[in-house]
Amino acid sequence: MKAMKATTVNKSVIRLLKEKNLVNDKLLVCINQLSIEDLIAIKLELSANNINNRLYGLPVWKNLTNLVKDAIFKYAYSATRTQMEAMRLLGLTANHFHKLKKRYDPISYFED
Description:
Helix content: 55-70%
Number of strands: 0
Radius of gyration: 17 Å
Shape: globular
């Protein structure tokens, strides 16, 4: 059987955030108990608190799809061994995958 050469980052977002001391196991347990909708709402509320609850003029709704796609792309890129596996996971053609790879730049996200 031919060994597969890893062509993706093969690094977890959780591991990266732990290395940067941004999360710990206790926080991850708490996060695991929340829905993705709750996490997004909490993040928006915390962001709004920093600017006196004034999100006016920020196109949050318009950019929501891009925010979610960025997160999912980073997960797929880190959770798979090859770019082909990431493409299959996301249901993308090679051409579309490579365009998104340039746009979201997952490699630089995981670099130190």
